[in-house]
Amino acid sequence: MKSNEVILKVENLSKQYRLGTVGTGTISHDLNRWWHKVRGKEDPFLKVGESNNRAIKGESEYVWALKDINFEVKRGEVLGIIGKNGAGKSTLLKILSKVTGPSTGSIKANGRIASLLEVGTGFHPEMTGKENVFLNGAILGMTKKEIADKLDEIIQFSGCERYIDTPVKRYSSGMKVRLAFAVAAFLEPDILVVDEVLAVGDAEFQKKAIGKMQDISSQGGRTVLFVSHNMNSVAKLCTSTILLENGEIVFTGEVEEGIKRYEFGNLKDTNNSKDIKTRGLKVFSDILSVKILKTNDLIYMGDDLSFSIKLKIKNSTKNVELGYRLYHKNTPTMTNITNWDIGALDLDKGNYNFNAAIPKNTLFPGIYTLEVFVRQINNPVDVIADNAKSFKVEWKDITGHEPNFDTISVKGMYTKTEWNIEKDNG
Q: N or C: which end of the chain has fewer CB within 10 A?
């Protein structure tokens, strides 16, 4: 029961932290902030800081966990918030749940928000499961009568009936998640915020939880904000997505497109020679670039697949062999593919374009990384481009049935490679 009513609006939301300290960490910074505050001025330390890229060492001790976040959610919508670890997803949910406050910006919510951020959040370990149901319900703003009316449904859904009068300190993490989710879902908040906690539960409970969230949104007209790294769950549950990267929104829109950008955002585009990282002796050759040649964004199982390798030969060399390896996420390595089909090559000095084609590829769906190597026959490898290119193969079947490829070996599952070599005279 989705409507056009905006139930949650986030405007110019930002969150800044100082690494390694609480507050500013120095008296001078505290006094500076206080002096600006009493004069009605902006916090001076909000003007400094770097983006939240955890992979690199920064120059500033201030970081923006979130920077200028803007989005709105309509009643009955299920919004998937996706992004890699450290992107700012949990920080955003904690601000929405009022666990912490923003540095700048505003949040306008038209209704009650219930949150599931961490396992057992809000539970008192010495109290029984039943007592914690009433405690959590009260925190969410429910009356004792409202909680009592829903108590039997909550306990039944959680599957913890046998232990409901036992202190929750004796519960497993999965039992805590079951009970916490049941409380939040059955007390019918206007906005339900769910972080990755469902990953703790077993498969049966995850299926029940996703079904319940679908019911909450479609039948109850309530809104769900769902954070997960499980893209299958996001695809099944969500009606729209936002993609976070280094504390900023980089995409807002359709679920399928958001998932594609999330998965492909981690893949390397090496059309620029600066992206190529090589190792080895580099005595007679160097790998300048590697490109995947395709007509659209996706490569489907059964499509023609080809890629171009630009090679520099420094000195005229005999018996040159060029090859590649494909690595699948579930397989440590795959068979080497070389240009043996056309024989060893005698190459003059200059640049060469090698096109390798796999007609109607039978690669199983998944993410692959490509490694390229050049050597002389019977000699050690001269140069290797590790992880030179990444690409994803999709399953496409008109029946809509997708097999489970996670348990299938992909070694050798491709056809003979066709090679084409041209000297670059430019």
A: C
In this predicted structure, the answer to whether residue 420 has a pLDDT above a threshold of 50 is: yes
- Residue for token pair 């670059």: 424
Find how far residue 29's CA is from the centre of its chain. 36
| Closest C-alpha to 118, from 227, 16, 246, 205 | 227
Residue 253 is encoded by which pair of tokens?
A: 């829109």
Contacts 24+ apart (CB under 8 A), 175-181: 176/119, 176/120, 176/123, 177/116, 177/119, 177/120, 177/201, 177/205, 178/205, 179/123, 179/129, 179/132, 179/133, 179/154, 180/116, 180/119, 180/120, 180/121, 180/122, 180/123, 180/136, 181/116, 181/209, 181/212
Residue 382 structure tokens: 């001269």
Q: Which stretch of 121-125, 171-175, 305-309 has the lowest confidence by average pLDDT?
A: 121-125
Among the residue ranges 48-52, 212-216, 388-392, the one predicted with the least confidence is 48-52
The pLDDT of 193-203, averaged and rounded, is 73
SS3 30: helix
Residue 318 in this model has a pLDDT that exceeds 70: yes
Task: Calculate ∠ Cα 197-180-77, nearest 5°.
Answer: 65
Do the beta carbons of residue 290 and residue 370 sit within 8 Å?
yes
CB-based contact 225:233 (threshold 8 Å): no
